[in-house]
Design goal:
- The chain is mostly helical.
- The protein has three domains: 140 residues, Serine Threonine Protein Phosphatase 5, Tetratricopeptide repeat (Alpha Horseshoe); 73 residues, no CATH class; 147 residues, no CATH class.
- 68% of the residues lie in helices and 2% in strands.
- It has 24 helices and two strands.
- It has a two-stranded antiparallel ribbon with strand order 1-2.
- β1 and β2 form a beta hairpin.
- α3 runs antiparallel to α4 and α12 packs parallel to α15.
């Protein structure tokens, strides 16, 4: 089918077989930014109707990489393998060529280069919502709140406030601000985004983070519950908002509510292989146990999911949560196999491999030592890297579980001086934390 250049409503040019493909791709981008369940179906419709469209092929590769698993990464590798040749054959434009280069870099494990390419695209094409959202994702999993914040600050003035996706930008900016500790400004932008679109789960989630970090737990419960009918329409990301609600109840000592939310929502679709589900589940169960709650046989289902990801080498943040399930679930053979895989991973010349070597292995050892009752060894492993925890990615609220594991081990080690020092550090940020006191 002959390819031509068509522009969507934002003026972004696409190499495609029809103008309908360009317009549908804009719908795909909006859907992806909003975590809508139909995102994959929209892309499938585009690829079925226009299989040679370069950006559709790039997007298929991107979505595969976003799963953060070896199986889906293998699919992305297949897409990327002949993409550059296809780009040349279709006479794709410069922006599309850069997207193809970003996918190639991502498949090669060079996340820094991948993100840099997207940011370069945005300098010339600030309306490229796909590049913007993907850069936000990789800044997040690089643990750099400043880059998340500044990436959005560069773009916001260039978008019309009447744009259908402008609220998504406000919410992303809010989250970057929150991760930088600018809570008041973050709350202002996040609430403005939710006012525009209550179904914008990422923006609802940005405020949930603000309320968590400022220890406004009762208000947090009301915020998340009050908007549930809106944000619960999105994909599995909705379970992360239930996770946030659980954290508020946990700090209030309302453990029955936490267990109920875990069973009914947080773990309800764990077999779907959505990467964030295992993070929600593993970290919440381990937190519950540190609060002295018996979680029964709930680790078993997580172990079965984690065993499918022993060879994953995509995001260290995810790998640590799979490992958390294996260690807590008592599958020492699988846990040792995953740690051995991490040791091999850490020798590779890849962005996440370097983080694995610098921080990930220490956290892995600490978790394993803590579970085996070798508390001083756990502290010795984790304490030296506590100021580098951001490198593993995720949010400050998510990474807090690793801090808690270290502190729990310090308390159990009977080293009163170290325990007092580490708990006092945490109280500097969470003065009302009952667990910390």
């Amino acid at each position: 089918m002959p390819m031509k250049t068509y522009a969507d409503a934002d003026g972004l040019e696409f190499t495609a077989s029809s103008p309908d493909s360009a317009n549908k791709f804009a719908d795909f981008t909006s859907s992806y930014m909003g975590f809508r369940r139909e995102t994959g179906a929209i892309l499938k419709d585009i690829t079925d109707a226009d299989p040679d469209m370069p950006m559709a092929r790039c997007a298929k590769g991107y979505l595969a990489k976003l799963f953060g698993s070896s199986n889906h990464s293998a699919r992305a590798n297949v897409i990327s393998a002949d993409l550059n040749d296809h780009i040349k054959a279709t006479n794709a434009n410069d922006r599309e060529q850069r997207h193809a280069a970003a996918l190639t870099a991502w498949c090669a494990g060079d996340l820094d280069k991948t993100t840099r390419i997207w940011e370069e695209i945005l300098l010339e094409h600030p309306q490229d919502g796909l590049a913007l959202r993907l850069a936000h994702f990789t800044h997040f999993y690089s643990g750099d709140g400043r880059k998340m914040r500044d990436s959005m600050a560069r773009i916001l003035p260039l978008w019309s406030k009447d744009h259908r996706n402008y609220g998504f930008l406000q919410g992303m900016y809010a989250f970057g601000l929150e991760e930088c500790g600018q809570y008041e400004k973050a709350e202002r932008f996040g609430r403005a985004a939710v006012e525009r679109n209550p179904q914008d789960a990422w923006s609802v989630h940005s405020i949930a983070h603000v309320l968590e970090m400022t220890e406004r737990h009762e208000e947090g419960i009301q915020w998340v519950a009050g908007l549930e009918s809106d944000w619960s329409t999105v994909n599995n990301f909705r379970f992360h908002l239930y996770w946030h609600k659980s954290l508020y109840h946990l700090e209030r000592g309302e453990f029955d509510a936490v267990m109920r939310i875990y069973d009914e929502q947080v773990s309800s679709d764990i077999e779907s292989n959505f990467y964030l589900d295992i993070c929600n589940c593993s970290s919440l169960l381990w937190r519950l146990e540190m609060f002295g709650i018996d979680v029964g046989g709930r680790w078993k289902a997580l172990v079965e999911v984690a065993k499918k990801h022993l060879e994953d080498k995509d995001l260290i943040f995810l790998t640590l949560h799979y490992l958390m399930a294996l260690i807590a679930g008592g599958d020492k053979v699988a846990a040792d196999q995953m740690i051995e895989g991490m040791q091999n991973w850490s020798t590779m010349d890849e962005t996440q491999a370097r983080v694995c070597g610098e921080v990930g292995l220490a956290i892995a050892s600490g978790m394993q030592h803590a579970r085996e009752g070798r508390f001083k060894d756990a502290v010795a492993a984790m304490e030296p890297v506590r100021y580098k925890l951001n490198l593993v990615g995720g949010s400050a609220a998510q990474r807090d579980v690793f801090v808690m594991i270290m502190l729990d081990a310090a308390k159990a080690s009977s080293d009163a001086l170290v325990a007092r020092a580490l708990f006092a550090e945490r109280l500097g940020e969470k003065v009302h934390s009952s667990w910390t006191w």
